[in-house]
Amino acid sequence: MTGSDKFWALLGIGLDLSGAIAVASLAIWLWPRRERFGNVGTPVVVALFLTAAWCLAIASAMTGRLILLPSLAESARNLGWLFVIYRFFASDGRHASLAPIRPVIVALAFVELLHLGVDAALTRASFDGAFLRVAFESNVLFRLLVTVGGLVLVHNLYAGASRETRPGLRWPASGLAFLWAFDLNLYTIAYLGGDWPIEIAAFRGVAALALAGAFLLAIARNRDELRLKPSRAVTFQTFSLLVIGVYLVAMVSVAQWLSYAGGDFARLIELTFLTLASAFALVVLPSRRVRGWFKVTLTKHFFQHRYDYREEWLRFTRTIGSSGLEAKPLGERVVQSIADVTDSPAGLLLAPGEQGELTLASRWNWAEIEVPAEAMPMRALEVFERTGYITDLDDIRAGDDSTSPGIVVPQWLIDERRAWALVPLVHYERLVGMVVLARPQIVRKFDWEDFDLLRVIGQQVASYLAENSSQEALAESSRFEDFHRRIAFVMHDIKNLASQFSLLARNAELHAHKKEFRDDMLVTLRNSSEKLNALIARLSRYGNGAVEKLEQVPVLDVIDAVAQRFKDNPQVVVAERHDLTVTGNRHSLEQVLVHLIQNGLDASGPDSPVFLAVSADGLNARFEVLDAGCGMSAEFVRNRLFKPFVSTKNGGFGIGAFEARELVRAMRGRLEVESREGLGSRFVVRVPLAAAQDLYDNIANKDQRVA
């Protein structure tokens, strides 16, 4: 033996003797306590003694003596553990219900006996080198058959056990799996290498030590607390490494097989295979869909619960609580925090509008979807508000009413195949929003765990939205109070100035000596007085949205007056006119349309038209202002457009859009907005027709009587 072989032999003897001592000590200690394994206790003790004898036998073989004894001891060890496995199956009656168990164990025992007979025959005769090589490979194959069969039986023993018996089988199955997995690698390397790997065989005693440790844990009183609980991150990373390892082994195996064929053609096939396999790995393995499939598979088979609730809650708090200049708006963070739970790549936030309907409040990674101004009517919200039901839109499309009783979903969500689920956000039995989730890469059906987690997170983000709305309302009220306080002083000063101008005009009529100066002064003072009084009247309306009076107003007169204001600007185009009469205030209606058209001009390029159209829409006249300008985001429309004192213009007062909406409301009308960034905006003003005046009056009187 060389120096290196002596080292490995000494290391092997030391580990084998350690394994023999550990296993024999455990068997002796377990003998009076064997009832802890029930009717399998005695076979387990016998198998442990056989394992200790096997360790002693292979330690003796390291010295070059007793060549047949290690093979006999290993066969006895394997037969002992096969009988133990059968007794474990019999302990819960599966040896009778699973018909293949007994034949498999008998077949493996036969292979062991056959191998033992062949090995004994080989030691009594002399053969040439070629025959001995074939005999060596045959013996290794016999061992591989028994090892693989033992591993399959151990897997079936644990995987098929009931929930009550599985904790008692966890550690014995782990010990046997480690023992035979080590032998599987040892004999595989021996078969591929054509020689006995003494370096690896020296560590067989470690397998015996691991077996002893596993059975010691199996009879420990706190064995249930010793359960291995890997985190999801560790499991996913380990599984990824396993996949990479299997892939590399497969490539090496195929390349080795091709190299045996020899020749230039085989070399070409080998290079082609390696190229295609590498390209496949680079394209498929980084795929988000493949990663999603891995995650779903591991979660389904490795963990009792689908979610790691600690990690989910930490991720939720990081997302919803992010702050700073680079933080996303609250609406986007709300959508992202819910979408992360189901690995959805995009989503929408719908929030209650002026009339109680749901409108688009925010988008997250979903810029291409078209959302109507009324995303979900108010009549469809009562079921969500009352039940908090999380809706799978695929069930709605399939017409499955049993899973979604009474749920009414708008047609645009049905037609959008990417829309996957609706998550209502309910706060104190009030619907404060709805999240629409996009379809993930790997689609699955919701289960109770999904519903529970989404419902809890939905309630949490609903409280954030409600709190944010309250804070905005308080801030707006504070700004209004400050504005009213300041405007009171402004109005006082303007009134005094207007009085002085009026007095000056009267005095000038009496005391001016030069006619030219007198006439010019009169014109100037009268114009200033009229402007100041008009400004006072306009400022007085801020905050209450009041109009002077409601009367019948011809629509064409309003359109002509507005068109006259912009007669010098070719960008303003009147696209549609109808002879209608509405109930409103002419000055207020003109003011609203002029403001909307001017906003469209400000947002558009010098060659981009702004269209004005009017048509009948049921009981209302529909005024539409359409531009192809820069557009606005859903978050801006929702949270900033109609907020007073918030302006995107330099020096802007920030009350134009707010005043326009209040004036339309004062005329019993409605102002709607549809806008897309980069595409443009559409403002729709609905004002009641004069013919519907009596109907609106009856409704108003009825509401007053009910109140």
UniProtKB/TrEMBL annotation:
Transmembrane segments annotated in the record for this chain? 6-31, 43-61, 101-120, 140-159, 171-194, 200-219, 239-259, 265-285
**One Pfam family this sequence matches:** HATPase_c
InterPro entries for the chain: 2C_sensor_his_kinase, GAF, GAF-like_dom_sf, HATPase_C_sf, HATPase_dom, His_kinase_dom, Sig_transdc_His_kin-like_C, XrtA/PrsK
The alphabetized UniProt keywords are: ATP-binding, Kinase, Membrane, Nucleotide-binding, Transferase, Transmembrane, Transmembrane helix
The record, for Gene3D superfamilies, names: 3.30.450.40, Histidine kinase-like ATPase, C-terminal domain (3.30.565.10)
The EC code for this enzyme is 2.7.13.3
Molecular function terms, GO-annotated = ATP binding; protein histidine kinase activity
What reaction(s) does this enzyme catalyze?
A: ATP + protein L-histidine = ADP + protein N-phospho-L-histidine
Q: Where is the Histidine kinase domain?
A: 489-691
Official protein name in the record: histidine kinase
